[in-house]
Amino acid sequence: MRILIGVDSSSSSDAAMQEAAGRPWPAGSEFAVVTVVDPFFFTKAPQLLEETKKSTLQSLEEQAKPLVDAGWRVTTNVIVDNPRHTLPRAASEWRADLVLLGSHGRGAVGRLLLGSTAQAVLRHAECSVEIVRSAGKEKNTGGGEGMHVLIPTDGSEYAGVALRSVAERPWPKGSEFKVIASPEYPVLVGEYPYYIPEQLTELMESGHEHASESAKTGAELLMKAGLKVSGEVTEQEDTPAHAILAAAEKWNADLIVMGSHGRRGFNRLILGSVSETVALHATCSVEVTRKPLAVL
Fold first, then answer.
1. Closest alpha carbon to 259 in 285, 288, 280
2. Residues 103/12, Cβ–Cβ less than 8 Å
3. What span, in angstroms and rounded, lies between the C-alpha atoms of 188 and 255?
4. Is the pLDDT of residue 145 over 80?
């Protein structure tokens, strides 16, 4: 597995590095620790830019030391460019499977600022992206080493990618996994002139049955991988994103792993909709998974 970690001098970047160093990874995994320096601020001071590059590289090597000490193969790199554009491109060129980034701030807006580097990478990277927050670790009620990992599913191909990604990776001892599905009910307006009550009841029952089957199938997949897992149909909320956020908060999740799209493609679980809303507002880490790049 190839993991690119985007860092800067913030405490949120420290959380991303700590998460990378503290979590188990597949044998043979390698890491690229990258900082992007925006040249705009050095337009009139090119000499200062060179000094900044040198000092930043030294800092990166120090930050990467826990990964090196753990025996992982690690490279460090300082790139001079616009961070929002460069990190997705760097991940693609290095053929990363996952990008780890810290989020900034704790407020609803500050967690993942619109137009921020984190959100740009989340939207445009071709690989999976995890926005790391340390709050979930502080809330873990288990008192042990394990994580609480929440996986939303709607039975789609994209949700399947997230589930298989979880099933194929090692996790800290004692980790628990919960697969959730949110019933999809029809969105109706006014007096519902096109539906008789029996049709509405049938649609709602169908939505609940689909959610139940999706949660069951997802949980079975993780059980076959030897993981401690439960499945659950969430309470009805006004949107799937709110249902996921409520479930994560209630269960004290450390990490939410979810697909980038859903059963209705661009009309449902899409960045800018459910996935992005969850990444924006969750108090724990969120990983948005994508299919791995094809091997050339």
1. 288
2. yes
3. 33
4. no
CB half-sphere exposure, 81, CA atoms < 13 A: 14
Distances in Å between the Cα of 169 and the Cα atoms of 27, 163, 235 are 10, 10, 29
> Could you tell me the pTM of the whole model?
0.83
* Residue indicated by tokens 């290095």: 94
Listed in order, strand segments (DSSP E) in 115-190 are 128-132, 148-152, 176-181
Helix (H, G, I), strand (E, B) or coil at 224: helix
Question: How far is residue 147's CA from residue 102's CA, in Å, rounded to a whole number?
Answer: 18
Q: Which residue has the tokens 């800018």?
A: 272
Q: Name the DSSP class of 265.
A: B
Q: Is 88 helix (H, G, I), strand (E, B) or coil?
A: helix
DSSP states of 14-27: HHHHHHHHHS---T
| Ordered structural domains, the chain, with CATH | 1-132 (3.40.50.620), 134-296 (3.40.50.620)
Say if CB 39 and CB 49 are below 8 A apart: yes
Tens of pLDDT, residue by residue over 177-234, are 999 998 866 555 455 555 666 666 676 677 788 889 999 999 999 999 999 999 999 8
Place of tokens 């009805």: 236
Give helix 274-281 / helix 117-124 axis angle, nearest 10°: 150
- Give backbone dihedrals phi and psi of 158, rounded to 5 degrees, phi first: -70, -40
